[in-house]
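Hi support team,

I'm opening this ticket because the web form for multi-chain structure prediction keeps timing out on my end. I have pasted the exact lines I submitted so you can reproduce it. The total is 770 residues across two entries, so I didn't expect it to be a heavy job. Is there a limit I'm missing, or should I split the entries? Thanks in advance, R.K.
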Amino acid sequence: MSTSVTPRRDATRASSSRQPATPRRTSSLHRPQLVAAWALAIPFLVVFAAMFLVPLGYAGYLSTFTSQLVGGQVFSGLANYSRALNDPSFWAGLGRVALFLFVQVPIMLVIALFVALALDTGRVAGSKFVRLAIFVPYAVPGVVATLMWGYLYGRESGLIAQVISGVGLTPPDLLSPQNVLGSTMNIVSWEFIGYNMIVLYAALRSVPTEMYEAAEIDGAGPWRVAWSIKIPAIRSAILLTVIFSVIGSFQLFNEPNLLYSIAPNAIGSDFTPNLYAYNVAFKNQDVNYAAAIAFLLGFLIMIISYVVQLATSRKERLS
Amino acid sequence: MKRKTTAKALVSLAVVSAFVLTGCAPSGGGAGGGGDTAPVSQADIDKAMDTDTTLTFWTWVPDVQKEVDLFEAKYPKIKVDVVNVGTGTAQYPKLRTALKAGKGAPDVAQIEYQYIPSFRQTGSLVDLTPYGGADLESKYVPWVWNQVADDTGVWSVPQDSGPLGNLYRSDIYEQAGLTKAPETWADFATDAQTIKDKTDSYISNLPGNDPGQIVGLFWQAGAKPFSYDGDKTVGIDLDSTETQKVVTFWQDLIDKDLVSTDADFNDAWYQGFSSGKYASWQTAAWGPVFLQGTAANTSGKWTAAKIPQWKAGEDVSGNWGGSSDAVITGTQNPIAAAEFSKFLNSDPESTLAFANEQFLFPTTTDTLSSSDFTDTASDFYGGQKVNELFAGVSDTVSTDFQWLPFMDYVYSSFNDTLGKAIADHSDLSAALTAWQDDVTAYAKQQGFTVK
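Hello R.K., no limit was hit. The queue was backed up. Here is the completed structure from your submission:
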């Protein structure tokens, strides 16, 4: 989907934005070079077309049909889409991921940014170890992470509950319908703080240190350097993590799908739009409607990513 | 990477859906099924069983190779490939996908009773009548036979079953001053209060994620929530006097905090048995052995009893779980496949092995009355002959319980309606109505005629 391409394009643009505009390169390419370029690109394009464009097109085609267990498949135009737009389950899922987006993503990115900045100062003792320790959860497969947290969350045997009741308080049910979204946010934050931290940290390392020296001479303390120099300097990397996180939030699937087995009634079949699409396809046996939901979701993600990007680049231009 | 895996999930969804519907002409409803209905002659069967053949068998029964070996020993030319593609609800989507793709489906597949109509509806099961299926009837307990066969055909061969009983902690009961298991549900409610007051245990746990158990309890209460004519007409009666009676009963116990509502088959629930949080479990005939593995530290403290009755003096039960082995449409070897399924589930040696080694509760009257099965005394239940008790229960299960051809949806809808109300301790009666409405809406939307 073009959404996953967007950040990459943006990253390249951002890194070259301070250079004088490069002339259009294709015009200066000679024929043999062109041939080589295509030859190198073709394996990718073939796989991309076969594994991505064709299934995507096919799913789009499917989404314009209505299938019934009795009566089979009939062309129905956009009926599945209007059904999805009137489907409370779809909207409930979207509402949940939107809440997730507005609560979890800022928390996760602020922590990641803070840790990246702290590590970048070089004042953290054992910074290599800290970096690795924070990054390790990302290396743990999401499935394992969720199962592990599932055990920790358990109301009777879970570690968290035991600690809380150990100090004499009543442990909350972390897997109740009211709390399960928060519990999911916690799992996702745990998994991805390290990843985002590494992206931001790598960007910080590429900021020329002369700027810090100049700032120090001007009397700026470490907080001021971080706020006025480092953060603006890695704006494009921050934007990248924001867009990845936005997309990730809307596509939330693994965590709720696995928590379903331990908290089935709290998660339900429509916790997130992706989970809903999956259940519609494989439990309700309605592949066509699931395709429509997936398409609609992809379209929404595209719009939101674009809005986020537009808003940020506008700010960049203004500053 | 979150976005990567989720993107992958989305893409694979698209890919799968692409494969799923490739070459999928609208398959229409209808009974469909196997080819001609003329009986296959013994000569044909002999010939088929003496031809080199490889059968693929999808099942999740552990160590099933032992029973398969018995078959292969009898018919050396037939080789059976046992494949475990997942348990129950994990297997069905794969089976449907293979069926729609037109290749990759097995010759024989394990299918739980409640999912047989769903595969019948898509014409995916071979009618075993021409292959001597009807001759099997006399071998099975009547209610079990009705789960696999009707007037129009024999759709599968019963493998195991789960008539409902009541397993209880005799030590907790004694501690509460109770000397015997409740005979009626009214006794059960009284005992619940006594047990809670004197021992702080819950008499039982009603999970909000297990439609199978609730439906079993409905079955026992005489409800007939589902019906299916094998073609396009379904009956949905989830919101009936009987079902309301059941949920109102449990509502009362839940409201008084005499019954817990933990999700079942997970760690916390297993620990509930070990720790004495639950004093009993209204479970199926496969429950006793399961519990033995789950709460080993409570060995000797359990007793098996019959399920409490709605009317004193009655003796009726329901069923929860059980599987069959069906021959799948498209098989190149229907005769060998049918013979295999029949052998596996009716040969005395094979069924006895299922019963005593895999602890699948038997469905044949022979095995149910075999002393090799019923005489086993279990230490976990203080030396009680648990099999004998449940073998008796099997005769008391109501015979004409049916299912809908889309139980996947019915069960997933349960989790969002009645199950959710159980977990949230809210209004079960209203949630039962919501379940009924939701399932009815789905049935209509899928083009079924709802009676």
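A quick check on our side: Residues 79 and 367 of chain B are 26 Å apart (CA to CA). Let us know if the file doesn't open in your viewer.
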